[in-house]
């Protein structure tokens, strides 16, 4: 009986640990891992990021893990009232993760006196570039459209 309880405890701990590591792109079984870098605020780049993510999901519907990392002027994609809000929310619903650099947000706050309102589905990360480096180290392919 005690052995069964110990086994159950180990299984539960393993599942909990697995759910934390599965956060990136939200597909723990992904064989196609993509990180998209967005570091400028142009509408064309924002639309291209959305288009690339949609295309990859279409080609690899069950095996893609996609993380969009926005920093510098690219954080504009993740403003709460941004023009691509619906597209971002749709991609999040399909498992795409959108990371927003809080260092950039802090810089904006220092310059303007207030932080922009962010899409609540955006995932705050301390720094954009180190986040990209972490993902690349985990086997993600970096694309900067």
Automatic annotation (TrEMBL):
Region forming the signal peptide: 1-24
UniProt KW keywords: Signal
The keyword Signal belongs to this UniProt entry's keyword annotation: yes
InterPro entries hit by this protein: DsrEFH-like
Keyword Iron: no
PANTHER family documented for this protein: BLR3518 PROTEIN
The protein's name: DsrE family protein
Species annotation: Acidiphilium iwatense
